[in-house]
């Protein structure tokens, strides 16, 4: 098994599905479609799409809450390669999985965080402007 690391945007909302283990218990997993853009030179970019299955319950919960189309993510997990079929129908496949040793980091701030950051930035600029005016009167030179 190999490790993979991708930084890209969700092409659609995370799809949450459920499955059944061999012992009959159910579990949830998330399916992600992630677009990764790579510069190709002369202003051109190439977009590759990756399908990723997320099995870690904590990451599935994260995707339930924040896995919306357009979100920028950093995803690290396992890459499994195998061969399927026989003869002319044979093909090599690569699957990307986020199991218990995987990581997903949200790189896009949520709307609330963005609004909060904007408010703090505006307040900082306003404070700096008033402080600058006050200081000009007090400087003796």
How many strands in all?
7
Query: What general outline do the C-alpha atoms trace?
Result: flat
Give the topology string: H per helix, E per strand. EEEEHEEEH
What is the end-to-end distance? Answer: 69 Å
The assigned structural class equals alpha+beta
What is the count of DSSP helices, taking H or I runs of 4+ residues? Answer: 2
CATH architecture of the largest domain: Beta Barrel
Task: Please describe the biggest sheet, giving its number of strands, its sense, and whether it closes into a barrel.
Answer: 5 strands, mixed, barrel
- Report the oligomer: single chain
Please tell me the overall pLDDT: 80
Which percent range describes the beta-strand content? over 45%
Tell me the domain tally: 2
The CATH top-level class label of the largest domain: Mainly Beta
Polypeptide structure, described:
- With 141 residues, the chain is of the alpha+beta class.
- It has 2 domains: 2-108, OB fold (Dihydrolipoamide Acetyltransferase, E2P) (Beta Barrel); 109-141.
- Helix content is 27%, strand content 48%.
- It has 2 helices and 7 strands; from the N terminus they run E-E-E-E-H-E-E-E-H.
- It has a 5-stranded mixed β-barrel.
- The model is unreliable at 112-136 (pLDDT under 50).
